[in-house]
Amino acid sequence: MTSPKPVECWLTDMDGVLVHEEHAIPGAADFIAALTEHGRRFLVLTNNSIFTPRDLRARLLSSGIDVPESALWTSALATAQFLDDQRPGGSAFVVGEAGLTTALYEVGYTMTDRSPDYVVLGETRTYSFEAITTAIRLIEAGARFIATNPDVSGPSKQGTLPATGSVAALISAATGRAPYYIGKPNPLMMRSALNRIDAHSESTVMVGDRMDTDVISGLEAGLRTILVLTGSTKPDHVERFPYQPTRVVDSVADVVPLVGELRPLDQTQPDSRVNLG
After folding, report:
1. 170 shares a domain with 105
2. Alpha carbon of 162 to those of 127, 156, 170, 249: distances in Å?
3. Is 13 a catalytic residue?
């Protein structure tokens, strides 16, 4: 068996790993500080397409977590990169907010409701019946259907909110056309993130809180993975999956000591998994 390569780069999910809503998870600021101190290349990933990297940096900073704007990678940015690779200078009808429209503008896309190349669906807090109806009719007329991520719900202080995947299902039911999802768990987002920081999958670790997005996308992209139990996946659910992370820990605070090690996940330690019972 080939010995794993030293860890040079880190990818980490944002919600559930670093923050809950507007509040930092204990250890999150120390984790980012450790990555910077040890000179590790890293990106913070999110399927949320609402905010621009500048917005996200400000939100994280208000929680005490200092992440450079250049170290934030969203499903909106990955979607814009994908469309620019597929059809440079194309056009799109967009259902989404500033994070998505800004990303598309920056790669030279035109926003239009007249025979667009694509209908691009992102997350928003103000889905309108009129916009969804327009999207349906454009897809029926031949526009290709893209969605930033497949998440069906998201958290809020008031409770669960419908997310991109839910609205995509509505449009799919009306048109008979399924979207191509760009964000996690599509390994495409992971590969675009790796390219962003000039990283290789064999020397990169993915930290996430969801088995069905973070861990599976990291696994399929060839990364070692760490699951933290401060987010969506609960301890008693981990063993239900047919795949497993490299390591399971209570929170990102447990990851901080690993950042300074070149081979933090090579050894199999008795305490390398939390009690999943």
Report:
1. yes
2. 10, 10, 11, 29
3. yes
